[in-house]
Design a protein that fits this description.
Shape of chain B: elongated
Largest interface: A-B, 70 and 62 residues
Number of strands of chain A: 12
Structural class of chain B: alpha+beta
Radius of gyration of chain A: 21 Å
Number of helices of chain A: 8
Distance between the termini of chain A: 76 Å
Number of strands of chain B: 16
Helix content of chain B: 25-40%
Structural class of chain A: alpha/beta
Oligomer: heterodimer
Number of helices of chain B: 15
Shape of chain A: globular
Strand content of chain B: 25-35%
Strand order of the largest sheet of chain B: 11-12-13-14-15-16
Number of domains of chain A: 2
Helix content of chain A: 25-40%
Strand content of chain A: 15-25%
Distance between the termini of chain B: 73 Å
Chain lengths: 276, 480
């Protein structure tokens, strides 16, 4: 009799837990990025109270990745304080984040608090602290290189802190390869070309990113060219860019003799616009 | 010439004296053992003793080269009265191997005069004059010239001098000596200058048995924090700077300081800040054989304005953010948490001042940043190099925009270029001549966007170098 009562209790607890977690999943707050397809893939937008990772693409793509993460932070944090945590080393390697630059992208430098951590351990610890504070809109952690401290355990700790407080964590990884983590979404970002112009000295437009969504816990992955609209503070499709991007033809005989002397494009997007 | 700067009782009995040349001393007493004087080490030892003396009173002043003043006004009863206190201070120091002479008197100079001659005198109020009268002049600690002069005049004791008219003494030896004499007689007082400003609030806990475990130490700190906030709360104050002092049984004292951006009025906040600080210490708190006294000071406080808060989340956010900044600063240091303030200059690398967030958070939230021009693409890079990096540039015409450039061993072909944007240097501020910069925004074939500049116009470079040569190019920033 006692056993069966305990069993019933356990079963009830289990079902309550299921109901609760399902409720949490469907009530998860999201912020639309503004790019229709990306939002559809993300089922409404970037999840708040979670951790997202942005990797800089191979080569010197740090500034593009920084721009992309600044955009995400602006969408997520809106008018709330933003904490930006970085190691001392990144500043030498990739330059310091400039307040004028952030302000040009539509972020408010008045809401920014920067933490200059001496090493990765300090940076991770500080990030967990900052994520546990519910007054913070978003926390950006900048990490350079492959670091063994940022493993599954550390990543889980950040995710738990974010879930508990409702703050959103954004991890900017430079000179690193994606690894297993508990991130809600993971992006690889490269700079995209400005659309071809009639005159070579004509000005460029808004920042353009080639963003590849390589991990998405609740939906498919994808790859888009995104434009950050500095005035509306929204991502969007670049207007002047040849859209939609067609799949690369299977047979492209003139690829090697391209007058542009570029290395073969690894993806469909490049090819698409060059032919256009 | 080597002279004796200090000696012990045995040497004094042999007839040696301070100031005696070493050769004479060796002649008087051939067995004398000599060590080099080390004034720095002496001062350090005196400071360590002063640290230890902090447990008796917060007002401890150094009287170089080997004296200490302790202002024990209102403290003596805590240690069982003046006699017991003097015994305890001198006893502990004697057991550590120091030769000590102590006295308690109404004025600092009187007490010092007494210690020069006898040990352990306690002088009641208004009895200073009788106590110092029989002492020799040298006990006053005046200049040698004054002491010799008085001795030649036949005045041997302080009492002899005190009987003379003051104006006679002043005319011969100066007003400073008269003041010293008056103070020794208890007629005036010399203010002592304590080593540390008096904290506004002090709470402490003494242990009969020294404590060494982390659990007891942190429990003690939280208990003290609770007491401290109650005391401050009665006067409507909050702490901006807190000092925890740990007194070890062997005399070593460790001080740990925590600063806060907003006045703290809650015990648990203080407790948490100290926990963060103690965890992050590079050289952890070493209890040795244990601490027998733990003290918490509020050395800087502010009046807390009690304001009625509406349900506005913005105010709550500011408070929470400030608390977060305090915690991070306690852990990794206040200079590592910064906010940004715009500076009135157009030189890009000087446009922002990164100020410690604890002290400038309010200023930063109210700062006026130059507004962005709507509809324009970003005109300033997102990442800026603190030191611009020199690059090799090939331009089609010498004055023209770059066509290709080499940065960090990689060649970039320029596809788009916009510029120049000329930035002249601030001649009214810079010491050496800084060159005018022509900035270009360029995009390379991969879509990467850079901010380059040419350092100096052609005639500027010629003027500076003395001959015509191509100007240098620098990489200053990266656009998103």
């Amino acid at each position: 009799m006692v056993m069966s009562a305990a069993g019933t209790l356990a079963a009830l607890r289990g079902s309550i837990e299921r109901i609760e977690t399902q409720g949490a999943a469907c009530c998860q707050r999201k912020v639309p990025l503004g790019h229709a397809e990306a939002d559809a893939h993300l089922q409404g937008g970037l999840a708040l109270a979670a951790v997202h990772e942005v990797f800089a693409g191979a080569g010197r793509q740090t500034a593009a990745a920084t721009g992309f993460i600044a955009g995400l932070a602006r969408r997520v944090a809106a008018r709330r304080p933003l904490v930006w945590i970085r190691q001392d080393f990144t500043e030498v390697e990739a330059g310091a984040v400039s307040m004028d630059g952030l302000s040009e992208l539509g972020l408010d430098p008045r809401l920014l608090v920067t933490v200059r951590a001496a090493d990765v351990d300090q940076a991770l610890r500080t990030t967990a602290d900052a994520l546990a504070c519910d007054a913070v809109g978003a926390v950006v952690l900048e990490v350079w290189g492959e670091v063994k401290q940022l493993d599954l355990v550390a990543s889980r700790r950040l995710t738990l802190a974010a879930q508990a407080s409702g703050a959103t964590g954004l991890v900017l990884r430079m000179a690193a390869e994606p690894r297993a983590s508990t991130a809600e979404s993971r992006w690889i970002v490269r700079a995209a070309h400005s659309p071809p112009a009639s005159h070579p000295s004509s000005a460029w437009g808004s920042p353009l990113f080639e963003a590849q969504l390589v991990r998405n816990r609740h939906g498919p992955t994808g790859r888009w060219i995104m434009e950050w609209k500095c005035d509306e503070c929204l991502f969007g499709k670049p207007a002047a860019y040849p859209q939609p991007v067609a799949a690369a033809p299977a047979y492209r005989p003139h690829q090697a003799q391209s007058v542009f002397k570029r290395k073969p494009a690894p993806d469909a997007i490049r090819g698409g616009y060059r032919l256009a | 010439m080597l002279r004796i700067s200090a000696l012990n009782d045995a040497a004094a009995r042999c007839g040696l004296a301070i100031g005696l040349p070493l050769a004479n001393a060796r002649a008087i007493c051939p067995d004398v053992q000599v060590h080099d004087a080390d004034e720095a080490a002496d001062a350090e030892a005196l400071n360590a003793i002063a640290d230890w003396c902090d447990r008796f009173t917060p007002l401890v002043a150094l009287d170089a080269p080997h004296g200490l003043f302790l202002d024990i006004t209102g403290c003596a009863h805590l240690f069982g009265g003046e006699a017991a206190m003097l015994n305890r201070v001198c006893g502990v120091l004697t057991s550590q191997g120091f030769t000590i002479s102590g006295a308690i008197a109404g004025t600092a100079v009187c007490a010092r005069t007494l210690t020069r001659h006898v040990h352990g005198r306690i002088v009641r109020d208004d009895e200073e004059a009788e106590a110092v009268r029989p002492l020799p002049i040298s006990a006053l600690g005046a200049d040698m010239a004054v002491v010799t002069g008085l001795r030649r005049a036949g005045l041997k004791t302080i009492g002899d001098v005190a009987e003379r008219e003051r104006h006679e003494i002043t005319a011969r030896f100066g007003a400073r000596f008269t003041a010293l004499l008056e103070q020794a007689l208890g007629l005036g007082d010399m203010p002592i200058s304590p080593r540390k400003p008096l904290p506004e609030y002090i709470v402490e806990k003494r242990f009969a048995e020294p404590v060494a475990t982390e659990a007891v130490i942190s429990a003690t700190l939280s208990g003290l924090a609770g007491t401290l906030v109650v005391a401050m709360g009665k006067q409507g104050k909050g702490a901006r700077r807190l000092e925890a002092r740990f007194f070890r049984t062997d005399g070593a004292v460790r001080t740990i300081t925590v600063d806060t951006g907003q006045p703290v009025t809650r015990g648990e906040v203080i407790d948490r800040l100290f926990r963060e600080r103690l965890e992050a210490l590079n050289d952890p708190l070493d209890p040795g054989f244990g601490f027998d006294l733990i003290r918490l000071d509020a050395s800087r406080t502010e009046i807390v304005v009690q304001e009625q808060r509406d349900l506005d989340s913005h105010v709550h956010d500011q408070d929470e953010l400030s608390a977060l900044i305090d915690r991070i600063a306690a852990r990794i240091g206040g200079k590592r948490v910064v906010v940004h303030l715009p500076q009135d200059t157009h030189i890009p690398e000087r446009a922002v001042w990164a100020a410690p967030a604890q002290h400038h958070l309010t200023a930063a939230t109210e700062a006026a940043w130059p507004a962005r021009v709507a509809g324009e693409p970003p005109l300033r890079p997102l990442r800026l190099f603190e030191r611009p990096e020199q690059i090799k540039v090939i331009a089609e015409v010498p004055d023209g925009p770059p066509a290709r450039f080499v940065w960090r061993r990689a060649t970039h072909a320029v596809v788009r270029v916009e510029g120049p944007e000329r930035v002249a240097m601030e001649w009214w501020r810079s010491q050496g001549a800084m060159l005018t910069r022509d900035y270009f925004r360029v995009e390379d074939e991969e879509g990467l966007r850079f901010w380059l500049y040419r350092d100096g116009l052609f005639d500027e470079v010629e003027q500076k170098e003395g001959k015509a040569q191509p100007p240098n190019w620098f990489m200053h920033g990266l656009f998103a």
